[in-house]
């Protein structure tokens, strides 16, 4: 058995490649359908914008088109993928699910794939589907009279360099328009009539010698008909009876959307993000001219869908997709575009690094995302997001508490904000706005240490010299307790009926609250000063606590006292030298805990026995409980000094959060959700690197100017504010930054940025010249130190044993940092290794170097110190075209190739023969049919701590045979099955085998009803035999439950949630192994189980499950 890597997706695809609008879910409902690389989203257009389905497709989507065959009342959906598969989908309104009407394989292994992208089109009269997949071929899939697809056939297409093909409207026979380029690079337009006898007949009209940039056709519907030919400088309207043209500003238009049913207006999006309106001027169905107008700026569009009432969806592969509104009048800047909403897009990711920006032990991924003007840096972290509802600038906040006007009120009324020398009261007014008010009984000229609601509709305020009891209705002072002479109150806490405070000198005072009374019940003297206290009620009485927790300064301990007599029952030494700064008694799911925050940011938790006060199981965020276990999650805020609950009518279930100079009201969103922060750059960031010592990022970027040549930079950014601190311009317009590294050298205490460049001259197929530039950061600026010219592009740089290792074209070069007589430093070549085709990436571990080759897969090199040479140690002899490589351990390596595959290879250092030592064996394989991996995609594995990356990245080593995953490809067939399995089902090369037997001993096995409920509440009823587990049942019935380890209890990907507690209690108790696996599951709940461990039995009839 061989070892391979199990891979899960942390973030679904975010770039929008296609979109369309039509009546898909019903004849009366308008739908927006979006393709995000390998998923389709179906939205119902309502004021709320409801999403009714989000469905994975097993391949990258190449075509997305809606059409309506004869006799149908609603639209069907055609999808093709880049692996030459297609399907036709229909929405079943009764079951609210997708049904596959037809699917198949349209590949041709002996033909040359087209270089200009696959094209899928549908005849407007739904007589046939046309596919241009290979040069010189046009595949036809005809419909019969009942709207069913018949067997397809190929027609030879004379034009080889096809740029675009579209079906034309208003033709008696199916007619295509072909835009092509001849051998002299001239572009022409021609029409063909398609006959169902495997042939073309040249159409009645054509147009030659078009704009050299023409590459897009737009068919015009009746009554005008004809076609628009979109070029870089000219737009031409052509029909048998007319030809009109208009000159435009030089640009590249790649996306369009029709506005009117008659096709008289179109929205055009260009490569600079400008949105234009093209109008066909006509009189009595006769075209008289064209007119174009600039509307405004959007993201760079990959698709445009006009919805209704001036609302447009702009899908983007280079930036954030947007929902925009076209206004009738321009704004102050002359733009008609109003952005209603933006949708985050991480792609395309060309580089990334993993850093701990907040220094809290949590890695954040910083990506170079987007392109051109939509280029940006994205900071991706895992945790809880705080959705900001309102904020106000307030400096110097020292504490906050929310209060009610009455204990019976559902919402808080007051927000008490404490400062160093005053206390201010905020309250919600009738317009749901926070405004300052007064509580007359409170002392407002001093700092408040604690506030709380009290019994009998009272409020309690603790300051450094007193405890004040105030009526919440009249706001007048009712009673007051003064601190002893010569002592001030340092810390305090309270419940609705109790106050506990500590004064200087180690005095701990317990006070009880009555109706207008404050009674000192007990006072004790401790040997040390108190650092923090709490007595939050964790028993049955929410107004009274029987225990108090106290943190101490000198002996670094936490103590538990019994109230009201302040009897010490537990003393827990924390160890170390960091004092406890905050303690909290709390309960989750019936279990009592003591939480203790230390001054260095660590958080400890103790399980508390409330009867004995015993503390146990302590260990070092928002804290929440799931399946009776405490879980921690970071938030998307930094430098929060104070926080308290604040639930008002305007902001229900909210928090008041104090940050430096700001008070924010916010709500918590989903637990453990990826949080994405966008830093617009306005140019393409190609490479990124972080330098911890100077707290900076360095990036290599390219800025494209519309009327100028592109400019290349090395930029320095602050790692907190992301402001540009310094810029170094690469003066030669053809020199681009190709790699970047932060490193130090032997015998040099400084830390440097090293930048590798390449001169990309147009006449060269491969760069023959480059440089290595060395910079140091001084006073927040990039200072140039040295340079080294190279004989090729510097694709990759690595720090290596105090030296610099570079991948330059076909060789690996090692440089040492030499000190010259004049005190300056210079890079000097020490040794090199040749024999590669092209080495775009490498990784190092000790003296070993893993090199990814463009054509020769993975090579392992070793550096020999004594001899000063680099030699080959082992090689993968397979001809893989690699884009990235990573070292998993001393003998196992991870590679990514250009065919969307991840694979692992292993070298056998202890093999008995030299030949066996030199060869590496493929031990794991994962077909990434969804995404082409970027050059540095595997860096996250490198930079996360080795002992943590299995759970962080969702990677788990499984035992699996490589040959088990080889499956035959699909053939054309018509099926009426549920969507998730039916679409390209036979292309799922990673499906594992499982038993589907429901007949034993010649007799049918008894079955029960099991219900799977999807995220939209849609139920899928299936029949499952007694004795089968839920994972097997899901697979037999096309339920998308993964189960990567095939039920071997080695992963948590078959995680299901039992929706009814009565059924959950009927299940067998989970084993310790299952509970350990569930700890890694996404969306864990108290009724979570692994599907492979749930065995169907009669009493489970009617069980309802959902997949998180």
From TrEMBL:
<dbReference type="InterPro" id="IPR036010">
    <property type="entry name" value="2Fe-2S_ferredoxin-like_sf"/>
</dbReference>
<keyword id="KW-0408">Iron</keyword>
<keyword id="KW-0539">Nucleus</keyword>
<keyword id="KW-0411">Iron-sulfur</keyword>
<dbReference type="InterPro" id="IPR004871">
    <property type="entry name" value="RSE1/DDB1/CPSF1_C"/>
</dbReference>
<protein>
    <recommendedName>
        <fullName>2Fe-2S ferredoxin-type domain-containing protein</fullName>
    </recommendedName>
</protein>
<keyword id="KW-0001">2Fe-2S</keyword>
<dbReference type="InterPro" id="IPR036322">
    <property type="entry name" value="WD40_repeat_dom_sf"/>
</dbReference>
<dbReference type="InterPro" id="IPR018846">
    <property type="entry name" value="Beta-prop_RSE1/DDB1/CPSF1_1st"/>
</dbReference>
<dbReference type="GO" id="GO:0046872">
    <property type="term" value="F:metal ion binding"/>
</dbReference>
<keyword id="KW-0479">Metal-binding</keyword>
<feature type="domain" description="2Fe-2S ferredoxin-type">
    <location>
        <begin position="1008"/>
        <end position="1108"/>
    </location>
</feature>
<dbReference type="Pfam" id="PF23726">
    <property type="entry name" value="Beta-prop_RSE1_2nd"/>
</dbReference>
<dbReference type="Pfam" id="PF10433">
    <property type="entry name" value="Beta-prop_RSE1_1st"/>
</dbReference>
<dbReference type="GO" id="GO:0005634">
    <property type="term" value="C:nucleus"/>
</dbReference>
<dbReference type="Pfam" id="PF03178">
    <property type="entry name" value="CPSF_A"/>
</dbReference>
<dbReference type="InterPro" id="IPR050358">
    <property type="entry name" value="RSE1/DDB1/CFT1"/>
</dbReference>
<dbReference type="Pfam" id="PF00111">
    <property type="entry name" value="Fer2"/>
</dbReference>
<dbReference type="InterPro" id="IPR001055">
    <property type="entry name" value="Adrenodoxin-like"/>
</dbReference>
<dbReference type="GO" id="GO:0009793">
    <property type="term" value="P:embryo development ending in seed dormancy"/>
</dbReference>
<dbReference type="GO" id="GO:0140647">
    <property type="term" value="P:P450-containing electron transport chain"/>
</dbReference>
<dbReference type="GO" id="GO:0051537">
    <property type="term" value="F:2 iron, 2 sulfur cluster binding"/>
</dbReference>
<dbReference type="InterPro" id="IPR012675">
    <property type="entry name" value="Beta-grasp_dom_sf"/>
</dbReference>
<dbReference type="InterPro" id="IPR001041">
    <property type="entry name" value="2Fe-2S_ferredoxin-type"/>
</dbReference>
<dbReference type="InterPro" id="IPR015943">
    <property type="entry name" value="WD40/YVTN_repeat-like_dom_sf"/>
</dbReference>
<dbReference type="InterPro" id="IPR058543">
    <property type="entry name" value="Beta-prop_RSE1/DDB1/CPSF1_2nd"/>
</dbReference>
<dbReference type="GO" id="GO:0003676">
    <property type="term" value="F:nucleic acid binding"/>
</dbReference>
């Amino acid at each position: 058995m061989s070892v391979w890597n199990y891979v899960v997706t942390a973030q679904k695809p975010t770039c929008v490649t296609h979109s369309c609008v039509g009546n898909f879910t019903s004849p009366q409902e308008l739908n927006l359908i979006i393709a995000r690389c390998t998923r389709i989203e179906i939205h119902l257009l309502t004021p709320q914008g409801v999403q009714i389905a989000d469905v994975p497709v097993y391949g990258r989507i190449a075509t997305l088109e809606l059409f309506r065959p004869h006799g149908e009342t609603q639209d069907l959906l055609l999808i093709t993928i880049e692996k030459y598969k297609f399907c036709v989908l229909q929405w079943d309104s009764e079951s609210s699910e997708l049904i596959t009407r037809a699917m198949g394989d349209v590949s041709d292994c002996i033909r040359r794939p087209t270089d200009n992208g696959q094209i899928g089109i549908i005849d407007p009269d739904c007589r046939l589907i046309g596919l241009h997949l290979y040069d010189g071929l046009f595949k036809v899939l005809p419909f019969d009279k009942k709207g069913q697809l018949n067997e397809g056939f190929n027609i030879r297409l004379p034009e080889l360099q096809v740029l675009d093909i579209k079906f034309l409207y208003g033709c008696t026979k199916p007619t295509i328009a072909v835009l092509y380029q001849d051998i002299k690079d001239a572009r022409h337009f021609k029409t063909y009539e398609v006959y169902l006898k495997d042939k073309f007949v040249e159409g009645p009209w054509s147009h030659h010698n078009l704009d050299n940039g023409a590459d897009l056709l737009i068919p015009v519907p009746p009554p005008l008909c004809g076609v628009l030919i979109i070029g870089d400088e000219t737009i031409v309207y052509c029909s048998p009876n007319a030809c009109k043209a208009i000159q435009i500003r030089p640009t590249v238009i790649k996306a369009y959307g029709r506005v009117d049913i008659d096709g008289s207006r179109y929205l055009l999006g260009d490569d600079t993000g400008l949105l234009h309106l093209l109008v066909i001027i006509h009189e009595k169905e006769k075209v008289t001219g064209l007119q174009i107008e600039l509307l405004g700026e959007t993201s760079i569009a990959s698709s445009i869908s006009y919805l209704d009432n001036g609302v447009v969806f702009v899908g983007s592969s280079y930036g954030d997709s947007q929902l925009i509104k076209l206004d009738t009048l321009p704004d102050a800047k002359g733009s008609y575009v109003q952005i209603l909403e933006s949708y985050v897009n991480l792609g395309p990711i060309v580089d990334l690094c993993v850093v701990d920006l907040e220094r809290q032990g949590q890695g954040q991924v910083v990506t170079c995302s987007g392109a051109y003007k939509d280029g940006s840096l994205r900071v991706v972290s895992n945790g809880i997001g705080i959705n900001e509802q309102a904020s106000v600038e307030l400096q110097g906040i020292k504490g906050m508490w929310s209060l009610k006007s009455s204990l019976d009120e559902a919402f808080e009324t007051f927000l008490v904000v404490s400062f160093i020398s005053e206390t201010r009261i905020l309250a919600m007014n009738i317009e749901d706005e926070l405004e300052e008010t007064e509580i007359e009984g409170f002392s407002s000229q001093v700092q408040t240490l604690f506030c709380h609601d009290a019994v009998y509709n009272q409020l309690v305020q603790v300051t450094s010299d007193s405890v004040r009891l105030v009526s919440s209705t009249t706001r007048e002072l009712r009673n007051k307790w003064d601190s002893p002479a010569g002592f001030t109150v340092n810390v305090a806490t309270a419940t609705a009926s109790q106050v506990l405070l500590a004064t200087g000198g180690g005095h701990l005072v317990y006070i009880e609250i009555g109706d207008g009374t404050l009674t000192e019940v007990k006072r004790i003297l401790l040997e040390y000063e108190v650092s923090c206290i709490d007595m939050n009620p964790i028993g049955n009485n929410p107004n009274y606590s029987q225990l108090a927790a106290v943190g101490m300064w000198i002996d670094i301990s936490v103590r538990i006292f019994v109230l009201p007599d302040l009897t010490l029952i537990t003393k827990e030494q924390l160890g170390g030298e960091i004092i406890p700064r905050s303690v909290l008694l709390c309960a989750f799911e019936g279990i009592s805990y003591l939480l203790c925050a230390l001054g260095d940011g660590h958080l400890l938790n103790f399980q508390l026995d409330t009867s004995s006060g015993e503390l146990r199981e302590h260990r070092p965020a928002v804290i929440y409980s799931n399946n009776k276990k405490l879980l921690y999650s970071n938030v998307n805020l930094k430098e929060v000094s104070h926080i308290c609950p604040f639930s008002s009518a305007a902001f229900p279930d909210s928090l008041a959060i104090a940050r430096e100079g700001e008070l924010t009201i916010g709500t918590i969103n989903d637990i453990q959700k990826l949080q994405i922060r966008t830093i617009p750059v306005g140019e393409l960031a190609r490479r990124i690197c972080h330098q911890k010592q100077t707290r900076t990022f360095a990036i290599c970027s390219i800025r494209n100017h519309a009327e100028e040549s592109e400019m290349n930079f090395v930029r320095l950014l602050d790692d907190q504010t992301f402001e540009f601190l310094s810029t170094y311009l690469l003066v030669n317009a053809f020199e681009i930054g190709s790699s970047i590294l932060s490193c130090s050298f032997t015998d040099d205490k400084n830390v440097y940025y090293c930048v590798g460049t390449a001169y990309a001259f147009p006449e060269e197929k491969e760069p023959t010249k480059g440089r290595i530039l060395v910079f140091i950061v001084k006073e927040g600026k990039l200072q140039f130190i040295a340079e080294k010219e190279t004989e090729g592009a510097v694709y990759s740089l690595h720090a290596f044993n105090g030296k610099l290792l570079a991948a330059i074209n076909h060789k690996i070069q090692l440089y040492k940092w030499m000190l010259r007589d004049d005190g300056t430093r210079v890079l000097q070549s020490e040794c090199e290794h040749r024999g590669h085709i092209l080495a775009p990436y490498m990784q190092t571990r000790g003296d070993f170097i893993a090199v990814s080759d463009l054509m020769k897969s993975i090579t392992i090199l070793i550096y020999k110190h004594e001899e000063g040479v680099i030699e080959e140690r082992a090689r993968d002899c397979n001809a893989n075209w690699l884009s990235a490589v990573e070292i998993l351990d001393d003998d196992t390596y991870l590679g990514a190739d250009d065919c969307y595959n991840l694979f692992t290879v292993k070298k056998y250092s202890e093999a008995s023969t030299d030949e066996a030592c030199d060869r590496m064996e493929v031990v794991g394989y994962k077909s990434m049919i969804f995404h082409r991996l970027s050059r540095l995609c595997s860096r996250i594995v490198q930079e996360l701590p080795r002992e943590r990356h299995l759970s962080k990245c969702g990677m788990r080593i499984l035992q699996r045979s490589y040959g088990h995953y080889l499956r035959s490809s699909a053939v054309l067939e018509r099926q009426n099955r549920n969507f998730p399995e039916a679409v390209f089902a036979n292309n799922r090369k990673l499906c594992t085998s499982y038993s589907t037997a429901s007949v034993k001993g010649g007799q049918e096995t008894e079955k029960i009803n099991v219900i799977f409920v999807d995220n939209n509440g849609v139920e899928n009823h299936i029949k499952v035999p007694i004795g089968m587990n839920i994972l097997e049942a899901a697979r037999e019935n096309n339920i998308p439950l993964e189960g990567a380890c095939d039920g071997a209890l080695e992963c948590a990907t078959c995680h299901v949630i039992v929706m009814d507690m009565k059924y959950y209690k009927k299940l067998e108790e989970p084993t310790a192994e299952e509970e350990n696996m569930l700890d890694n599951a996404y969306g864990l709940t108290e009724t979570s189980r692994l599907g492979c461990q749930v065995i169907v039995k009669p009493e489970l009839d009617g069980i309802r499950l959902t997949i998180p």
